[in-house]
Each structure stands twice: as structure tokens, then as C-alpha cells.
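Reopening this ticket.

The earlier resolution said the output was attached, but the attachment link was broken on my side. Pasting everything inline this time so it's all in one place.
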Amino acid sequence: MRHLVGLILALVLGAALYFGAGWGVERVIALHGAVTNHGAQHGLTSPAGLFAVAAVAGTGLLLGILLTAPRVSPLATGLPGLALLGWSALVVIHSQTTLRYVPMPGSHFTAGITYLLFNGILGLLGAAMIIPLAIPSRWYRRDTYVDEAEEDYNVQHALGLVP
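Inline output:
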């Protein structure tokens, strides 16, 4: 059941990376250095810029939680990480045909993801996201509850504090 939830979280993370990071990065690139009608305000401090930064930060926060939470299946980050590594390898092998496999061509999401893809950032993220797949303790379930019915367990005696 835990790995089934991990598979669902992998789909959620993949969508968050595509839509959240793709849109956010595209907006940050478009607003970087933009000047509003007031002339002095930076484009990233405008409400649209703050939403773009919040989208990227929220995607990163979701990724960080799924990477570090010990009860989350390693499939949650491993499967999207393998997809990102495969996509990055396709850029290295056939950079012209890579854009054929990007969903929703011509959208803001695709522009941001293409920027991340061709600058190697998705490859770096994919390499970091597959690390939980190699940690054996993430694959099995740990039951860490303590049975309170055992009254004969003495902490001081177990630690050697009582002679």
C-alpha cells in the first residue's frame, strides 16, 4: 500500500515539476529585469513575480519533503527522477528530437521546462531524486511503536545505570 501511494505521489510530483516549476521558471525569466509602469519596481517583486517565485519554491518544498520523509516510498521521487534523467540523456543524444516529446508544445509550461532541460537543471534534479532508490531502509516498513503493556522493561537497567 505504501508503494502504491508512492506511485500516486510520483505522478503528483511529476505534474508539480512540469506545471509549477515550468510555469514559474518561464515567468521568472520573463520578469527578470522587467520594469513595471512605476519605473522603479523590479519585475520579480511585483505580484506576478512573487507568484512565479512561490510556484518554484512550492515545487521545491514538495520535492524536499518527498525526498526526506522516511515514511514516503522511494518511488515517489525515484520514478520522476528516472524520467528526468532519461529526458536529459535524450537531450545529449538527440537534442533536435527532444522537443517532440515535451507535452503541450507552445505553452508557458513547455518554455520553462525546456529552459531547465537544455541548461542541465533537470538532469541535476533527476540525479538527486533517484538517491532514495538506493537507500535500503526506505524500501521496508519500520514499526517503531512501543508496546506499553510491557511493564517489566526497565530503562535504567537496560542502560547499565543500575548495578
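Reporter confirms the inline version is readable. The chain is about 60% helix and 0% strand. The mean pLDDT is 80.
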